[in-house]
Amino acid sequence: VGSGSTPAFLKADSWNETWPLAFRTLAMSVLGTGIAGFVVLGTFIFGARNIMVGELAGNRNPVWFITYMFVRGIFIITRGVPELIWAMLIVFAFSPGILPGAIALAIHNSGILGKLAAEVVEDMDVHPVQALRTSGAGRIQVLFYGVLPEVVPRFLTLLMYRWEVIIRATIVVGFVA
After folding, report:
1. What would the DSSP string read from start to end of 68-122?
2. Predicted TM-score (pTM) of this structure
């Protein structure tokens, strides 16, 4: 208080140093969320018990059970390791920057989002899917006309929620990446 200097938030050069860092944080969070979203969009159906091995599975092929167990295992491993550890491991493969941080955030959050999205599929109303099955629809048709229309809105809600969490995690990961 007695130093007589101007506070940092009133100095223009302090703001000029802060804006690029804030942009990097936002860019890393958006990139990490986008990568995680695309990964989960391609894998969450394989992690849903009711679609892969449950009442909506159609044929009970052991390959689908192995696929289900593998995907759920990947979700467990990726969400079990914190973003900071992923970032430290990935920085060895890439030079420090936005990309390694975004990849670390994407790996960790792919596991979380994958599990949450698979649970959304497991909790969905099965009547439309059963109606499609009994009318002769194949697996792809059931996916596009029965499953995705019901779960995509909730998946997007989860994605936006995780983006909020990722923004906070980006600040920590940004120290490593």
Report:
1. HHHHHHHHHHHHHS-HHHHHHHHHHHS-SSHHHHHHHHHHHHHHHHHHHHHHHHH
2. 0.84
